[in-house]
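About this split. The held-out portion is used to measure sequence recovery: a designer receives only the C-alpha cells and must propose an amino acid at every position. Recovery is the fraction of positions where the proposal matches the reference. Here is one held-out target exactly as it appears in the evaluation file.
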C-alpha cells in the first residue's frame, strides 16, 4: 500500500453509510479517506427494502440503483393483514451487492481514496485524530502489510452494528432485553405482490422484498438462533410460497440487532449508521436513517462543529426508533399483534400516516 495522505475526514467503514458519508463530505468541500478492509461489492444480511426517502437520497448522491419497485408495506398475521401504500413514489428492493457497487462507483467518480485496511486504534489530540490501520481486516482477503496510520481533522465511524470504534471509545451500552437476530436468503420466484410483506408468527417476523422480476429476498427476524429451515417452519404460508423455488444466495446472519451507544460523538469522532446504535430491522429503515445521518455528519464537520451532529442525528433517527421500539413491544404477543392489526383496520389513515411519515426524508 502506498502512503495515505492526511484527510479532513477519515471514514471508518465502507458500507452504504460510510460511502454516502464520503460522498456528502466531498460535496461539502472536505477531503475524505475511507477505510474498508472487505473487497467490493460487499454483501450483508439485510431485508434490502430501500424506503422512498433512501431511493431519493441515492439519486441525489449520484448513485442511482434500479432494483425492483415496491409500493408499500403489508403486515400479515395468519389470515389477517393490513397494508399501506406510499403516497410519494415507490421504494426499491435492491440487492446489497448492487447498492454497494453503485455507491462505490459514485465514490470512485468523486475521487474518494479508499484504503483496503481496517482501523485498529484511535488517538485524539486537540487538532485531529490518528487512526491506526491493521495489516489486514476481518475476512478481507487483504494480505498483511506493515502497520500504518492516517490522520484526519475528524473521524466518522461507519463501521456497522458491532462498531469496533464504538467499543474502543467506551461508548458501548451493555445489551438488555430480548436479543434478536436476522437471517436472509434469496429465492428464484416471481414476486406475488408489489408490496414488502412482513409475516408475523409467535417466533418472530419474516420479511419478503421483491428484488427482481424473478427473485425475492427473505429475511427472518426473531430471538431464535435455529437454522434457516427451522426458522422458516414458523411461517407456513410463506414456506408454501417458497416450496420448490431455487435458492439464489447463501444464508447470511446478523445480530444481536439491538445495539446502543452512550453518545453519537466523542470529541472529534462521530458515529453514523448502525455504528451509532440500532433498534431493529422490523420497520426496514436502517438505510434511510443511515443516509440521513451521513448527510448530517458531513454538514456538521464541514462547519468544523462535530458537537452539532448528535442533535441533528437524533432528529433524523428518533421517529423511526420510536416507531420500531413501540411496534416491537406491542407485537411480542399474539394478542398484541391482533390489537395492532385491529387498530390499523379501524383507523387505516393512522397506519397509512405512520408508514408515509417514515417513508420520506
Ligand atoms: C436482517 C436485517 C434486515 C434488514 N432489513 C433492512 C431493510 O429492509 N431496509 C433497510 O433500510 N435496512 C435494513 N436493515 C438495516 C441495514 O442493513 C443497516 O442499517 C445498514 O446496513 C447500515 O449500514 P452501515 O453502513 O451503517 O453498516 P454496514 O453495512 O454494516 O457497514 C459497516 C462496514 O464497516 C466495515 N468495518 C467494520 N469494522 C471495521 C474496521 N475496524 N475498520 C474499517 N472498516 C470496518 C465493515 O467491513 C462494513 O463494510 C436490516 C438489517 C438486518 C440485520
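Reference sequence for scoring:
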Amino acid at each position: 500500500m502506498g502512503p495515505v495522505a492526511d484527510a479532513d475526514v477519515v471514514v471508518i467503514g465502507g458500507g452504504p453509510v460510510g460511502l454516502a458519508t464520503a460522498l456528502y463530505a466531498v460535496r461539502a468541500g472536505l477531503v475524505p479517506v475511507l477505510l474498508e478492509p472487505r473487497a467490493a461489492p460487499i454483501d450483508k444480511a439485510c431485508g434490502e427494502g430501500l424506503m422512498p426517502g433512501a431511493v431519493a437520497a441515492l439519486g441525489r448522491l449520484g448513485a442511482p440503483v434500479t432494483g425492483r419497485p415496491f409500493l408499500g408495506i403489508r403486515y400479515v398475521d395468519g389470515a389477517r393483514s393490513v397494508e399501506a401504500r406510499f403516497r410519494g413514489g415507490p421504494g426499491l428492493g435492491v440487492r446489497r451487492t448492487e447498492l454497494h457497487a453503485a455507491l462505490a462507483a459514485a465514490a470512485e467518480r468523486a475521487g474518494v481514496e479508499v484504503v483496503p485496511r481496517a482501523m485498529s486504534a484511535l488517538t485524539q489530540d486537540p487538532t485531529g485524530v490518528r487512526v491506526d490501520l491493521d495489516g489486514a481486516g476481518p475476512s478481507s482477503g487483504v494480505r498483511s502489510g506493515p502497520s500504518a496510520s492516517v490522520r484526519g481533522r475528524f473521524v466518522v465511524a461507519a463501521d456497522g452494528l458491532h462498531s469496533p470504534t464504538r467499543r474502543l471509545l467506551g461508548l458501548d451500552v451493555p445489551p438488555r432485553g430480548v436479543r434478536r437476530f436476522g437471517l436472509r436468503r434469496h429465492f428464484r420466484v416471481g414476486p406475488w405482490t408489489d408490496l414488502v410483506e412482513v409475516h408475523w408468527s409467535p417466533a418472530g417476523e419474516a420479511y419478503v422484498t421483491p428484488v427482481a422480476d424473478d427473485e425475492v429476498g427473505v429475511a427472518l427476524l426473531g430471538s431464535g438462533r435455529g437454522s434457516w429451515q427451522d426458522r422458516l417452519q414458523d411461517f407456513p404460508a410463506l414456506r408454501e410460497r417458497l416450496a420448490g423455488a431455487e435458492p439464489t444466495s447463501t444464508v447470511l446472519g446478523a445480530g444481536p440487532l439491538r445495539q446502543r451507544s452512550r453518545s453519537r460523538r466523542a470529541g472529534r469522532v462521530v458515529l453514523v449508521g448502525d455504528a451509532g446504535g440500532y433498534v431493529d430491522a422490523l420497520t426496514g429503515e436502517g438505510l434511510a436513517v443511515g443516509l440521513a445521518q451521513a448527510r448530517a455528519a458531513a454538514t456538521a464537520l464541514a462547519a468544523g462543529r462535530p458537537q452539532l451532529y448528535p442533535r441533528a442525528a437524533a432528529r433524523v433517527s428518533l421517529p423511526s426508533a420510536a416507531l420500531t421500539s413501540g411496534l416491537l413491544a406491542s407485537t411480542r404477543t399474539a394478542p398484541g399483534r391482533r390489537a395492532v392489526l385491529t387498530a390499523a383496520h379501524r383507523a387505516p389513515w393512522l397506519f397509512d400516516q405512520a408508514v408515509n411519515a417514515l417513508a420520506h426524508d
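Annotator remark: Confidence is low (pLDDT under 50) at residues 136-144.
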